[in-house]
Specification:
The protein is α+β, with helices and mostly antiparallel strands and about 230 residues long. It is built from 6 helices and 12 strands. A hairpin with a 2-residue loop joins strand 4 and strand 5.
Length: about 230
């Protein structure tokens, strides 16, 4: 074995790994929390989302979000899901999720917040108005055809009397040490689990069927799936 190549190969491997970490490490992570007032009291759900800018050499990619839609168990067999999507001009907008925390912090500060400074932000800020993602509920979580849209300002129309959206918030959390951010001092990983609650997401047409049942636009199965979960 020619040992003279070990050093250069090890250096090359370190450079490749380091470059992949640079490209794929999130620009920032944030916790989205959804609180709902119910006849049984306040119910809440939250999830960690990671936002990664395009750092590739081609610069032909896009800023992306990793994580799952936030699901809230409201009790009494009811539920609420805050999708990773907004509806703009009658079309599903997946990119808006990438900037929810950025714009929420900017609105709270009364000034524009630079994307590169997001990981330095502190505190909890409200997600209001146009920043609120599309909300849906399922009469039967096992059946995508039972999806219904939940109006943020009038959730009783879909959920019944005594239900009110108390608020949605965003809170920047430490990035951690991607890709070994498994929890604890290494950093909080993005939240997963929506597929366990909505098993039909594993079906090619499951997510699209849910959006259509809720009266939400969706151009195809993959686009619809990204409203619920993203890698």
């Amino acid at each position: 074995m020619n040992f003279k190549w070990i050093g250069p190969l090890a250096l090359l491997a370190a450079l490749v790994v380091g470059d992949q970490i640079r490209i794929n490490r999130p620009g920032h992570k944030y916790r989205m929390t959804v609180e709902v007032e119910t006849p049984e009291g306040v119910k809440s759900g939250s999830g960690i989302l990671a936002v990664t800018p395009d750092r590739g050499y081609s610069r032909k990619g896009r800023t992306s979000t990793s994580g799952d839609a936030v699901s809230v168990d409201l009790g009494a067999g009811k539920n609420l899901v805050a999708l990773l999507a907004h509806v703009e001009d009658g079309k599903i907008d997946l990119d808006a999720t990438n900037y929810v925390a950025l714009r929420a912090y900017g609105a709270a500060a009364g000034r524009r917040v630079n994307f590169n400074d997001m990981s330095k932000q502190t505190g909890i800020v409200p997600v209001k108005g146009a920043l609120i993602p599309a909300l849906v509920t399922f009469a039967d979580p096992a059946d995508p055809a039972t999806a219904r849209t939940v109006p943020p300002d009038a959730p009783e129309a879909a959920l019944g009397k005594g239900y009110r959206l108390r608020g949605i918030t965003a809170e920047v959390v430490p990035n951690g040490f991607w890709p070994i951010d498994f929890g604890g001092p290494l950093g909080e990983p993005v939240t997963r689990g929506i597929a366990a609650r909505l098993s039909w997401l594993e079906r090619p047409d499951g997510a699209l069927a849910a959006l259509r049942a809720a009266g939400l636009p969706g151009e195809g199965p993959q686009e619809a799936r990204e409203a619920f979960t993203r890698k």
